[in-house]
Amino acid sequence: MAKSKRKRTPKTVLKLPDLEQSKSAVLNSLTSPSSQRSYDHAIREFIEWYCSEPRLAFNKTVVTRYRISLEQRRYAPSTINLRLAAVRRLAYEAADCGLLSADLAAGIRRVKGAKRLGVRVGNWLTAEQGKRLLMAADEASLRGRRDYAMLAVLLGCGLRRAELTGLRIEDLQLREEHWVIADLVGKGGHVRTIPMPDWVKAGVDNWVAAAGITTGPLLRSINKAGRIWGNGFSPKVIWGVVKDKAASCEFPSLAPHDLRRTCA
Questions:
Q1: Can you give the pTM of this predicted structure?
Q2: Longest CA–CA separation in the chain, Å
Q3: Tens digits of per-residue pLDDT, 198-256?
Q4: Structural domains of the chain sorted by starting position, each given as residue range(s) with its CATH number in brackets
Q5: Burial environment of residue 177 by CB neighbours within 10 A (0 to 12, 13 to 18, 19 or more)
């Protein structure tokens, strides 16, 4: 007579290997690279907090304590809710893998997020401030022309950083006598076509002509000698360029997503 297999009993306390396995399952379930980065950062912070406590059970009470610790660090409600969403997803995947009790996972999913009070505030640039930001890029140099084209596309087309780094020359198309960024695949796999104003196209053409680019990624890295190298760059380069130009214009709190908000 064949012996029956012993059924694995779900745990209440997850150790580091269990958390890492659940984290991998969460990241593999996400299709957007930006969502993967956000959830990876949020889950890593939770794991560090969870493992610093002495053998806590992974349940609703512990996640509520984690939310209180985030509130004590004076995080914005939107940031806290994003971190909690990642933790809920972690509990769901742990339960789905048989590592965590389904009842505990259900309790974690019922943890309430932080309340959003008042009106959400952000940075918007006026037309004059947008011109000042563009003028901060010195178009006499190759790097300055690239930075001008970068800022122009962010301001005039409202792209995300990841979308801008993946933009190719072939994506710029003339449709019905108007230039557009055609069939751009954005966050969550959404496809959209974005109009490109004439002043943005002029800045892009100035950069492309100076760089001698005819195909492939629109924006490229530039070395210390002022020469193009490689094929494209990471979104962190865009963040650095925007913060540098914003500081020279005395906009210290400006970030790339604020340019997207200004475009909208």
A1: 0.62
A2: 85
A3: 999 999 999 999 989 888 999 988 888 888 887 778 888 898 899 999 888 888 788 88
A4: 16-109 (1.10.150.130), 127-263 (1.10.443.10)
A5: exposed
